[in-house]
Amino acid sequence: MPAGASLVWALSNHDVVRFPTRICEEDDARVKCALVVLLGLHGTPVLYYGDELGLHQVEIPDDVDWRAPWLPPGRGVASVAAQREDPGSVLSFCRELVALRRRRNDLSHGLTSSSTLPPGSGPGGADRRPSSRSS
Question: Are the beta carbons of 18 and 58 closer than 8 angstroms?
Fold first, then answer.
């Protein structure tokens, strides 16, 4: 990677099925785990519209009013207002992770090095170190 470059990470975008449906089986605990990974990587995380709510993939009605601020959340996904009031919601959890990321310079500017282990030894290893940048 070129010097000064930064990685950009995303779990959802307009070209793929939303990650809570695609990789988390619409389970809030799994959605929270995926958000920890996304927001724990150094670089720039991208939260696609609705990721912070754990929004599932839904069919968009033909008669949708595109001036409305929200797409239909789908079955089992609480509204923004309800999630704001619930400290255990995906939205509240995501807000806590973003706040943590702002407090911890190593989460956005740290250095990650990876290593390849011999075949059959399990997953590869990684090491996170603070960067030379100041907080």
Answer: no
